[in-house]
Design brief:
RmlC_Cupin_sf; globular; ureidoglycolate hydrolase activity; Ureidogly_lyase; Jelly Rolls; five-stranded mixed beta sheet; binds (2S)-(carbamoylamino)(hydroxy)ethanoic acid; lyase; mainly beta; about 325 residues; purine metabolism
């Protein structure tokens, strides 16, 4: 893994965190009955998880609300992982004042980057520089905020994620790729075994290859591939205190970002084996020589400090 990669000058708008919008990166855990997503048009909703009555009728139990994966059996060290819960107490980030720039708008979503005022002219736009991304190739990671309500408008958090570039597009930055889970291919010993892998199979009617280890995982929990982050398609979502988020294994993400008045305590649930490069891989984003700035999230807040949604579902005058 290179220590850094060149980054374009790019400005990212903020979107509403919804299960559908976050789908390719992992899952959003929230109460389906009170989720802001219930107000979205039907095509933007994901069916709620199955539920059953529990606790003698005093609870509704939603089943399998997020999908965890432990892929450490594929790690080079073979050191087994254990399930861990860590706590991250995340301080509010410093931002810099807005200034016009020649930076490109992100290639995802519509964005009028000059639109920084409401009808009363009292929105404030600030700039948040994203200088590092990280991923956990062998595990999902779930961040659960504590003590923050859905109504809290003075403190919110951002989830910043990037798709993964194809490995071929990443090779020019790296000679030695860092460890990444790849399904093991067992060596076949007999001709029968070798032919059994041919498709269409001479021995069965199967026409499709056997399912890989990853296809048995929920799509949100599957590893995203060994490549570097696709910075041009980076996305930034604003979450409320009633939402937890699970990053799929290997999803490139920024360290948790708190916007507002106070720290947020998160419990983070994941697997870990204490081998540094297998647990966490980081990459620094260095603006390239011609870039005026690097990767920047545009953070618009109203007079109460509420982060405004500027792209994606619910962006038109949307409020969380
Ligand atoms: N996401 C975040 O804030 N941090 C991590 O993922 C970590 O494991 O350090």
């Amino acid at each position: 893994m290179p220590a850094s990669m060149p980054s374009p000058s790019i400005r990212i708008p903020i979107e509403l965190l919804t299960p559908t919008a976050f789908n390719q990166f992992g899952t959003v855990v929230e109460n389906p009955a009170t989720s802001p997503s219930t107000k979205l048009p039907v095509p933007h909703r994901i069916p709620p998880p199955d539920s059953v009555p529990a606790n003698q009728g005093f609870a509704t139990k939603y089943l399998d609300v997020t999908h965890m994966s432990n892929l450490y059996t594929l790690a080079p060290s073979k050191k087994p992982a254990k399930a861990v819960m860590n706590m991250f107490v995340c301080k509010p980030r410093e931002m810099r004042p807005h200034e016009p720039s020649m930076s490109l708008p992100s290639s995802w979503g519509d964005l009028d980057i000059e639109d920084d005022e409401d009808e009363n002219g009292d929105y404030e736009r600030q700039l948040l520089d994203i200088g590092i991304l990280e991923r956990h190739p062998f595990t999902t990671q779930t961040f659960i905020p504590m003590g923050l309500s859905q109504q809290d408008r003075h403190t919110q958090y951002l989830v910043v994620v990037a798709p993964t570039l194809p490995a071929s597009a990443s090779s020019r930055y790296s000679d030695r790729p860092p460890p990444y889970p790849t399904p093991m291919v067992k060596r076949k010993k007999s001709f029968k075994d070798m032919f059994a892998r041919a498709r269409p199979s001479p021995f069965t009617n199967e026409a499709t290859p056997p399912p890989s280890l990853f296809s048995r995982l929920h799509p949100s929990a599957r590893p995203k591939g060994p490549g570097l982050p696709d910075l041009k398609n980076l996305r930034a979502f604003v979450a409320t205190g009633s939402q937890a988020v699970t990053y799929g294994a290997g999803t490139w993400h920024a360290p948790m970002i708190v916007i507002g008045d106070r720290s947020i305590d998160f419990v983070a649930v994941q697997f870990a084996n204490d081998v540094g490069i297998e647990d966490c891989q980081e990459i620094f984003l260095k603006p390239n020589s011609t870039a005026q700035e690097g990767v920047v999230v545009l953070v618009d807040t109203d007079s109460s400090g509420t982060v405004q949604v500027k792209a994606g579902v619910g962006s038109v005058k949307a409020r969380l």
